[in-house]
Structures are given as C-alpha cells and as structure tokens.
Amino acid sequence: MRLGNVISERAKNAADKPTVISLGQIWMDIMLDVDDMPKTGDFAVTRHTKPTPGGSYRILAAASRMGVRAQHAGIIGDGIWASAVRMVLRRSGIDHIGQNLDNVDSGFRLVFQDEEERKTYIAHYGAEAQGDEHTFDNITPSSNSVVHISGNTLLNQTAVGLDGFLRRAGTDPKQRDWMLVLNSTNALNQVSDKLIEDLVLARPIWSCNRQEAGTLADRLGVHIDDSTTMTVGGGFDKSMQLLCDELGNALRAPLVVRAGSRGAWVRKPGGKVEHIEGFPTKAVHTRSAGSCHTGVMCAMLAKGWSLPDAVRIANAAASLAIQHNDHGVPVCPSYQEAMALLEA
Q1: d(CA 181, CA 15)
Q2: What is the pTM of this model?
Q3: Three-state secondary-structure class, residue 9
Q4: Are 330 and 322 a contacting pair, CB within 8 Å?
Q5: What fold, for 18-343?
Q6: CA–CA separation, 44 vs 68, rounded Å?
Q7: I need a surface site. Which of 26, 98, 186, 336 has the fewest CB within 10 A?
Q8: CB 314: neighbour CB atoms within 10 A?
Q9: What is the pLDDT of residues 184-241, one digit of tens each?
Q10: Where is the Carbohydrate kinase PfkB domain positioned along the sequence (predicted)?
Q11: H/E element holding 109?
Q12: Among 116, 171, 117, 163, which residue's Cα sits nearest to residue 137?
C-alpha cells in the first residue's frame, strides 16, 4: 500500500473515532481542608491542599477513560491557572479545540472543607466565562459524535455563544448525524427565558439528578403531584416514575434522572419510564459521581450503544468512582473495570 493511501486511511479512521465534545467550562478547584472556618480577621492553616481541574473536565476525563476521543470546546485563558488547565488536559489526552483568550487567566474556585465535611465555596470567573456570540462558531461535530452542554455554560456571557450553537443545531434531532446531551443545573432561575426556550426546542438528551429534575420541572411550569406515590414500600420508585413521565412529556426529549446507588430512570419520547438499577456501594467521600456518570454515558452513546445500555454502563462506572477518590474527587474507572462490574 502506498504511503499516501496509508495516511489517508489513518485520517479516515481518526475521523471515524467516537468523539465526545464538551461546550462546558473548565476551571481549577483549590481544595482546602481546615479544622474550622476562620472568623473575619483570624488565621487558619489547611491540613491539605491540592489544585484539581473542575467543571467539565471530569466529564471529559470520564469519556476519555472509556476509550473515545474527548475534546474541550470551551475557552482557555492565559496565565497560571490556564497553564494548569492545559497541563491536565494534555495528561488526560483531552484535546482543546476551543478559543484561547490572551491576557485573561482562567478562573479558579476555593473549596474549604471542615472536619464535618461541610464545604464553603469562593469562585473567581475567568476566561472560560467571557465568551460571545461567536464562541462556538467553529465547532462542527463529526458524524456520530456526542456534544455535551454543561449547566455552568448557561449562567454567564458565554451562554450567548451557546444559544447560537443551539440555533444552528436546529429543532429536529433526526436531522442531526450527531447527538446533543445537556446537564441541567439547580441555578435555572439565573438562565434567561430565551435560552431555556431554545434548549427545550433543541430537544437534547437531558441528564440530571433528582433535585435538578425538580428544579427544571418548576422552571417549565410542570406541576408534579407525587403525594399519592409516597406510600410504604415502593414510594420512591413511583415518585421517580411520575417525575420522569411528567417532565419527559413537557420536554418531548429523552430524559435521564440519576438517583445515586438506585441507578437512574430513563424515558424516551412517547415511551414508558425504565428504571435501570444501580450498584449499591459505600461512598468514601462526599462528592457526587454525577460527572463520571454523564461522561461515561456520552462515551457509550458515541460508541453506538443505546441510551438504556449507555446508562447501565454509566451506573457501573459511577458506582466504582464513588468508592475511590483523589483527595475527595471521585476517580472514574476504566472501560474494562466498568464492564467487569456490569458483567459480574
């Protein structure tokens, strides 16, 4: 085979590789363990500190662990924290395909945790939050890729660029040869009515925990009366099914609602709610493995798995992640580890 043909074939194979693209934002979390939060003017010493990437990084890292190409389409700045973000992306094999912003550093968040594991947050937004209407103009998803939208992108000026991307994506998922997955947020009261409308019209796959699903239902004016479901034995399951049914009807789009070790409830438009059992496990930290779950689900969808099967594998991965942590941050397992638990 000629060298030109070899290069062409390799390029074709690279283009066909399952890909997860995140339109989310990445910043650095500085974790600080303290005995007690100091009062104004006082002094405290942290027992441990470690900067770790936050935001959409953990979703992309989880997707990468599943063996797909992971790409970050958000903005990265120019400075100390931006350099740290770029370093962890390189180490994790995540490509940055988004914009670079000179003379503005990426953001960071101070996370204080006391002896009772209560957390206090102080955030500084940086380059990742300073987008405009052209932020995602150059993002053109390849066939069969999955585009992930994080809730944090809905809450600042970068949302203008996201809205433009949604309008280009259109309102008919069947006309796309790629999939759209959206993580909701509990801060939907800060999202404009116009963006909420465009998100619903785009009909993505909605992924959220139970609290976020309730917040979304409230924002959309969906009244859910679950008083009759709260009975002894099975009340929680009935409540989750009702929530997914009513919210799914309003969204007219696929819906995944996570519930920790109980797994997740999945509803497709016009279909019945399916409960996909989780894997009971003992958590060794207080942080949720929701990012791991979403990243793995996106990766499996990109690989061609059905939504229920993608959620089933994500349940297994999240269960393993909640058992292991790197200074309080859940560690997503490999594809082989997740499948071993699923098949055990």
Answers
A1: 21
A2: 0.89
A3: helix
A4: yes
A5: UDP-N-acetylmuramoyl-L-alanine:D-glutamate ligase (3.40.1190)
A6: 43
A7: 336
A8: 33
A9: 998 998 999 999 999 999 999 999 999 999 999 999 999 877 665 555 555 888 899 9
A10: 19-325
A11: strand 108-113
A12: 163
